[in-house]
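Quick start: what a row looks like.
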Amino acid sequence: MFRKYKIFFLSLLFVFQSFISFSQISAPKYSNEFLSIGIGARAFGMSGVQSAVVNDVTAAYWNPAGLQQIKTRYDVGLMHAEYFAGIAKYDYAGFATRLDSQSVIAASIIRFGIDDIPDTRFLIDGSGTINYNNIKFFSAADYAFLVSYARKSNLIKGLNVGVNLKIINRTVGSFATAWGFGFDAGAQYTKGKWNLGLVAKDITGTFNAWSFNTELLKDAYAQTGNLLPKNSVEVTVPRLIPGIARSFKISKKFGLLAATDLIITFDGKRNTLIKTGVFSIDPAIGIEADYQKIVFLRFGLGNVQTIKTFEGTNATSIQPNFGLGVRISKFTIDYALTDLGNLSESLYSNVFSLKFSFDKIN
């Protein structure tokens, strides 16, 4: 048994060292940032603290190992949210099915997009006349397609492991497009009332290859004095998310779940609670109270940042989040009230998500 744990911790040390190596790569700090938003109102209500506790179809995003905890043969999740007063749309759909008692597969799609952007390049025609009929519209959208697999470990009792394949497509009308791919890996370990989680996102680095249709851009760029963009490759640096949770039985009908995550990034200094020149750590905590696993009340704290006040002094801001959930037969409706007090950059505050669980396994 000691040998099994020794192998596990040596592997963890190797992964951490690999992530440190990625920090030396010159890469955009916020590449594929739409994949950092999250999915599921349950998670939003708990400030995204999910690595050790997620146990449904949304685990494909948070920690693929959590898919193994699904108790039904089929699990379906849906979510819609809006950013910036409805200008940007954020949508998610996921499906998971159990292969056998040892393994689960899932497929998910995430879209973040702005539609109906006016293309005014030809607003003024060749005669110098403004012609509104020449205005066309396009979309700027980011897509992520996830294929996930989770399996119960045969080596360590209580250990589940999982992996994601991510395919990324980003488009800006017909002007630019990017394709990319990457991998996530995760593990969950349960011992009594304790749960441990570990997620390595973009574990190999996620690569996006951008190509630009310069024929469509050269005239407008020449008139404005801008340089034409060049085809390039963008790398998303890995991040590590360890988490721990414990469940409590308050009474025969009431339960409580307390959890915390540490989001460790390796792309240099960020505006987080703990920061160095190599890595930054953003801690978050989440609490979920339940009544007979039917009604849920959630609370979370996260996104700890140092901000400048109007007086020019530094202050610490913390983003609180609240959530509710109701399970009715095979359906679960979750709601989250997030971004209270405009403490984060996103401007939407109400998030709803639905989950459908069918064919319960005894």
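That is the whole record. Confidence is low (pLDDT under 50) at residues 20-26, 340-344. The two ends are 30 Å apart (CA to CA).
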